[in-house]
Amino acid sequence: MSVTFGRTDTSVLGRWWWTVDRWTIAALLLLIAVGALLTMAASPAVAERIGAQSFHFVRRQFVFLAPAVILMLGISLLTPKQIRRTAVIGLLISLLLLALVPLLGAEVKGARRWLSLGGLSVQPSEFVKPFFTVVAGWMFASARLEPGFPGRIIATGLFGLTALLLLVQPDVGQTVILASIWAVQFFLAGLPLIWLAVLGMAAPVGAVVAYQFFPHVQSRVDRFLDPSAGDAYQVTTALSAFRNGGLFGRGPGEGKVKLVLPDAHTDFILAVGGEEFGLLLCLLVVALFAFIVLRGLSRLVKEDNLFVVLATAGLLVQFGMQAIINMASTLRLMPAKGMTLPFISYGGSSMLALALGMGMVLALTRTRYGREGLDA
What we know:
One of its GO terms (molecular function) is lipid-linked peptidoglycan transporter activity. This protein is mainly alpha-helical.
């Protein structure tokens, strides 16, 4: 990035340039570039297999790339107070859309998760996560700083409502991420020991309940524990792709897994990258995710604004967990879960929602001074 702003520049863009974490921006842009590369590698074969034009998915994904980058950088210009206001409005809209999904949503693979709005398929669950994270962080912080304010109750109530709407779809994976965000924020805000014990017992109980009441969860767990118990074709094929790719890969366009893997452009896109570009590209992707999360957390070490700490930590937990779940599923380190790899997998809703969330991280971790500090 070239810069023309001097340190004495007091314009909005000038202050932004010298206060935002430019290393994180660079890492995010590199991650988006890798995603664009892998989309071009993986999606043409998938498009041809379903009878669409070769670059059908490529064109659709690239339509969202520029708006996602603009959204991320635009959100990063906001102050913490503006982030809170945006999150409240966004959460209300997202919850309304989530409530409409079971009634108006299209059913795909036994689940209703998408709404058709203006000719575009929107997945409200992707957008509810960053908005919930910021609002819950605000409530927990307010409860800690203002004795008597029922922030914990409000945050827990919002979590319960959002989790219920997600489970109706059903979407257990997104519910797990939401629960992790809520638990981490509650812990950082000063979780009482009794609550820590309750959550410790609730986690395994929730896993057993999900296994008993959601057939798709039971099927995936059974196949993970015993691959011969069901169809483990996608995971087995993905592992074979990594082995075939080796250290340097078979070369761009030379991969075979994308020709036979149904979700090569979404859930298993890392397998395509591993086969064509090798272990080195996979390690680069892992390093980028780790750098972004750790860099964001390091910016919080000297932060004295509890809301900023809780909201940013929650957003980074969401980002990191989503990446871990996708990669662990692809490598058969956990039961398969249909979840996009942030900024890499095909998906417009995922791309825009992640850009929104990471834009909030950039905004909240900016160095604040003067008026911006007072507006926190």
